[in-house]
Give the backbone structure.
Amino acid sequence: PSTAPAGLPSGGAASASGGASAAAQAATIGLTYIPNVQFSPFYVAEAAGDYDRHGVAATLRHHGASEALFTAIAAGQEQFVVAGADEMLQARSQGMDLVAIAQHYHRYPVVLIVPDASPIKTAADLKGRSVGVPGKYGESWFGLKVLLKGAGLAESDVTITEIGYTQQAALVSKRVDSIIGFSNNDVVAFAAAGVAVRSIPLLASGTPPLVSICLITTQAYADAHPDVVKGVVAATTEGFRAAAADPAAALDATTAYVSTLKSDAAARDSAAKTLAASIAVWKDASGQITPAMDPAQFAAMATFMNEQGLLAKAVDPAGALSNAYQS
């Protein structure tokens, strides 16, 4: 199954088209989860006419529940898709023509989550205890691999339980001692439910050798339509910056896709907290929102993923990203 920016399962399909001029070139952007405030930058860019101004008649397409991340883009049903660069690199190792063209999450959002009273204080304390993951795929799984290696643990040192997307129930019921979750979603959801938890970073220090959510296209499409690619990158970047600058307006834009935010105060409050946590991971080390990607970080990711057996074959990271379409 596909995973969302916050590592959630993909859900029911929905789509909407921007009101672009006839001269604009059509492009479909795949959003790999049901409508959610985490996609608010795209909703903001659409509502503000950013795509239209950059010559793109953009359609935002939310993926279906059983749809894989890259099926639609491989079939030409989408020209762009929002997914983890690590997930993209794995697919690229399997022969898919994919390239990251803009980075949206500059801080890897995966964390270890434990009950507040848990004796687990560091990643090393996980030895001999259990950890829940949705499954052995996607960013949760990649993140656990980083955590174990950083703590000097083998998979056999812990009990890994596949819990699907039942993180909260699994932790509250003590089915597992800990879960792998996302700082901008699961941590917020626990707080909203009144469950006291702590989050532990994947590494005690330094940056995980993984790259999270990026805007992705195919190299073939980028070569054939460079102006469209530049337009989508520019418009989407404007959407991210606008959403961060005015979160209330971003919530308003999201109501066009998530109608409960209009009438349900609790839902809007939870969405606001998810948005605030998401804005934190959108920013780079200098606090800026930029589409720029670091080739060295991609190289470190390719090395780590290959060493961990996460790639079908070694991948040249240089071909997996391009900053050439950014203004």
Q: What stands out?
A: The longest strand covers residues 25-31. The radius of gyration is 19 Å. Residues 1-22 have pLDDT under 50 and may be disordered. The chain has 13 helices and eleven strands.
